[in-house]
Design a protein that fits this description.
1333 residues; mainly beta; five-stranded mixed sheet; transmembrane; Growth_fac_rcpt_cys_sf; Furin_repeat; transmembrane helix
Amino acid sequence: MRPPLAKPPPAASPRRRRLPQPLSPVAGLLLLVLASMASLWTAAAAAAAAAAAAAAAATADTPAPGLIYYQRGYAPLKADGYGSVEQIHLQGLAVSPRAEAQGYISFSRQDGLDLDVHPDTRLGAFLPPNTSGMYIPHPQPVNVEFFFPQALLPRYDALTLVAAGQLQLYPAAVRPATPPPVGFTLPGVVGLLAGLHLDASRTALLVRTDAGTLAHVLLDGSQASVTMLEDPAPQQVHIAHGLGPVFHVVQDGKYSRVGAASGLQESIPGSVGQGSLRQVLATRAVTSDPTRQDLILLQANGTVHICPNQIAGDRCTSPSLSISLPAGVAAGGRLLNPPVLGLAQPLGYILYHDTASNRVWRFDLGPGATAVTHTRRVVLYFDPGYIEPTNLRMLAFRGPDGTPAWHLVDDHRVHFTPEAFQCQSDRSIVCATEGTPLARGWSCIAGHAVTPLSESGLFCGGCTTSMTTALHPLEEAHCERCALSGCRVCTPEHCLVCAPRESLLVDLVTGVPACVAQCPAGWRHSGAFCRPEDPGPQLRLDWQPVEVTHPATVTPGAITGIGATRMVPDAAGALVMAMPEAGQAEPAPGPRARPLIFHQQNAVLWMAEQPDGSLAGQPVTGVPVAGQVTGMLELELPDRHNGWPVLGLFLCVDGKTAQVTVARCEAAIAPAPGARCPPTYETLLAENYSECHFQRLAPAAVSILSPGIVRVASFDSSARLRLQYWNRQATHPASLDPAAAEPYLIMAGQQRTFIQPAAMDYGDPRQAALPDASSGEPLLKALPVSMPGPGPGRAELVVTRFATDPTEALWVAVHFPRGMALHGKTAGLDGNEQVLARLPAAWVPSNGRPRVLALDLHMADFPSALVLVLKDAVAVAPMHCPAAGGGLCWLQEAITLPVPGEAGLFAPPGEAALVPVAGPPGPGKVFSLLLHQPRGQVLRLDARLPTCPEGTHATPAGCRACDRTCAACQAPGPSQCTACPPGDRLQDGQCVPRCPAGQYYQADGSGSDYTCHACHASCHRCTGPGAHQCTVCRADWLRTEEDLCVSQCPAGGFGCPATGRCAPCSAHCTECALAAVHPGGCTSACGACAKGWLLADATKTCESACPPGEFLPAAAGATACKPCDPACRTCHQSADFCTACPGEAALHPAAGQCQHQCTPGRQMPVDMLHEGTPGREPACVACPENCAQCPTAGATCVRRADGAIDCPDIRTCGRCAAEALLLQGQQCVFECPEEGFFADRDGQHGPVPSCVACHAECAASCSGPGRDQCIMPRTGAGRAVGLGIGLTLLCLLLVGGAVAVFLNRGRLFGAGPAKVRFLRRPRPACLPAWLRL
């Protein structure tokens, strides 16, 4: 606004020439008119100044309007988006009734929202997609419109008006009850306006009649009574509930109350605003007394009156506070506060919805509602592309403390207040403010990602890609960038997941991973890894048919299932619990558990392994089932009863009944070594399914799978069973950390794979809102598996699936190293995808899902393996981990073995069909598994280490080099030698020289004695004195191509520890060092290039130009490329100045930054072309300041060959940001120029709010486009009047002077009489119209 104009100084009196005669009468008249006008203008100025002062005084205590930003829920309010959301039970929680095709109304309720599992509700998902037990059966088609009266108790009965006067009440019930509807005939009733269930049998209604009046209806059981109300019922009538209970009714501006139970109507004379009201609301804004209410009355002119702390019969005649709406807010809106019958505590504010602009205003109230402390417009963020709804309302949802919390909602999302969204207490998020608008009203702080239901309790407690929390506890909300370039997941020392364009190259000697842009010679690209072209000998798999010896009492027949138990048979053949003999290890899962075979004749055989690998069967009794067992899984529970172990038995009976039984020793038998105790069985669960399959989740938890349904049965420390249920899950879940006190599960649903707290049930609506577990494509038809890692308690998360075409199926695995431990995320995890095996498409199961077991190998560097079991084959993929446990674990490619014969395997999707056994002894034994075929044949799968050449040792992943001191070995390290080089002798697994280091021995002629002589100085061991006779070089020395030992390789070479030799650098490289080790050789990392070549940072090779993802610094003489920031795909002259973005991100060329999308209200999308190459990418160009939409049609940015980018400079605007106005199509302003324009804020005179030019005949400003809307400039009342007076005085003086001169021209100039000609002179334009006469 301009500063006030300074008062002009008084004009000096002009020197006048004394005239011989007085002025004529005309001149005197003009002077009189002039004086009168001056008086009138002065009076007008005084009046205007007084009015302005009065207005200033009236608004002096009203807070200036501001903004308050609400936070949009992360997920939709209702997962399936189907059905409206209603506040039926006023003192309860909102529900969603939905019409089902089967002919009933079901209710989606908040009962499953278990805040004991996790208290965070900021996901915004409160209603599950499934339905609860409450429903309403009805015979009508599903498109019948139901009316749900609100209720003072949990009653969900519905009404329909099927024809004029024909009312039906449908009682809500719990399935399978089907109560019939109750019919009522109410002649003349044509519409239902409001309703309230008073108790279990009575319902009060306000209805419209065909006579155009209101009527009260009381339904009591099967009876109905009707009371006609006095006033006519206009089309627009507002009804609200209040204490009493009563209906507060406003019609045609008149306010009355109708008793909900009695139907008596009471007019309210003397009420404030009576006759001009729009709405009366009984709520709890400031009053906390449960027997009182706050009455809020909204007048048609927009004034809001508040009468607080009223009892049920009070009238609002003297409001404690009256609020006027801010300027520009339409008066035809409505109040949004909840009814008093549903509020236990006051809100402390009033919400007003301006329905014309779809904006909400909030008035914060002081104590007693005597003042407004803040007047703020509520900034709401709706979903992109989602039409801003007019159905804004407040509904009650379960709050973090379990009590109802009222939130503002639209048809799609919950909008949280900053307090409810924890904007101040959650340090992992930042919420929108007037200076920082955000897309959802909130965002994660830099470096953090949305982490729903995390253990830390922070909504953004996890780290984004390329950030890690490995050095800090998760609850500190601290993330730092990976130290190694190109990493997506890292530890402080190693990179575990590389950027998309790079591959992991793992040093096979040290296990250290590195990210490389291309695989070196001798290696091939496979998924996320570089793998050796020739992996050498692999793990050996063999099938062995197992001879099962049946006792004479059992007729051999088809096998229905197999299992394993720690129990043993006593002399009578009954299974008993047994303690280990003295000095014997206690039985543990795995081979120490003995196989059980179940037959069709319900016979159970306890199998004893024979030295030749056959099985001798002994009939046993005591298995607590009545039927055929098709699967069995046994757990040793953490509880110990009387010192004895407690066993949990999971049995699938007759292929469909899942039975959970606990076996305990109740006898008073001391658990001494070798003691036996007959168990007591207690069956805790027996449920029928279409199928039942078991998978171990944790030491005391098992998942039970039937098609589309998963139940998890877990035991606490007292062997009490806890059951959880998930519907629509396609396969077994997996535990991310089986040993954790509060583990997380990864679930594989029909459409996505997600991570949730293990204790969360399917009914919790937040489950359906959880985002996908993977940052890549959704993992469909997948099976999650938790693999034992190195060290106790550590697990590695793998998700496997099939990718098929008509002829081939790829067994694909996505491995998420360390699960959530390195970044804390529960969604969007980055992993290493790889192809484990290529299989015939015909081998894939009909449901398209793999059947995989994680097998514990109990090996330090190969702790576990994935076993894929198909009807036609078995595949095994070992997982290799560094023995030290600090590096990267990675899966090896699988070894596949077809099943012999045509019968195939019995391969259900679970663990129970695989029984680990000891198998026959032999070198290189890794594991043995028992499986069976449908026709009764038992097969054993033996896995053995490969046979390796001398100088290497066998591992499940192939042959690896021995320690340099060994000639042959059985494992890595200097203490695992099995043979030694010449001159050494083997002692306790180590090769010990016969002569001291640096000497060689020379036998005498008899062969019985020898003498030691000095080696060459370069040798550690040798066969003679020459430099070329070294067998082992000195420590850290290397052998050259000439077979000499040197301390440092010559120029152009580097040392390779895998071979102990010097190898040449790569092409055009003058200096290099070791980069990675692979079987039979090493790769180098160049440190300096020949002249004219540039050193690439990622590959450490010499290139003619920097590769994508790197840049050449602008400094003179730079010859080494530097990596771009991970946020950039390419960059120019600076690591963080992006010139291309990864994925679908858009580039902001002016700032050199990548962003997920163009900032709404600030930028517009354009295409960016590449000079000299095809293709285009998204980019964002800045609009003029405060411009929300600027024209960019046909505009493009061009990236030149040198990396620089040229973009157009947008100088025009099509639409301004909120509150701003478009000026002449180029500039966005908040106030129009004071002259020549008026503010069209509602867009009535153009397509967008803008500054519109005044009419051409307007001298200054105007109030509209017409010539009759010209006004003086808007410079304040006093200054406008003063300017008008000055202009009028000037015009009158000019006219008066001209007349006086004309009439006295003879006297003035001494001329004689002359002829006078009267001319029509033009009137000055500055005169008012009444003076232009």
